[in-house]
Amino acid sequence: MDVLDAAFWDKAHSSQPKGKESERKLAAFLANLACSRDDESPLYVARGLLRQFEHMFRDQPSTRQFFTDQLRQGKSDRTACPGVDGFTEDDWALLDRLVAAAQEPPPDAETK
Fold first, then answer.
1. Domain residue spans in the chain?
2. Rg (CA), the chain
3. Which of 34, 58, 59, 88 is deepest in the core (most CB within 10 A)?
4. Interval 62-92: pLDDT, tens
């Protein structure tokens, strides 16, 4: 059961300051949180953020790209992102889907 559903993230996202720099800073903060080695349970933080990230930043490919790149580094170098240590094949598959989605234009861009 997701405690923080899509409606929560939509509301939280709409209340945030806009702009490329603020988007990058937020993505960096979340990636650093997901990759943190200071938390007692970094795997659960990384996994939770990864799952919620599907609902966040749908229309911000550069933000999605930054976040997924940070986590992706941990696949080959666990010291780059200790939070992914212990990811399952399902976790990596979800990350792969987010990486692919980050490379696609946002839905609104196709209709303009």
1. 19-106
2. 14
3. 34
4. 778 888 888 889 888 888 888 888 899 999 9
Exposed (0-12), middle (13-18) or buried (19+): which is 103, by Cβ within 10 Å?
exposed
Q: What is the DSSP string of 44-107?
A: HHHHHHHHHHTTS-TT-HHHHHHHHHHHHHHHH-TTT-GGGTT--HHHHHHHHHHHHHHTSPPH
Q: By C-alpha distance, which of 58, 43, 55 is closest to 3? A: 55
pLDDT in tens, 5-53: 777 777 776 766 667 778 788 888 888 888 887 656 678 888 888 888 7
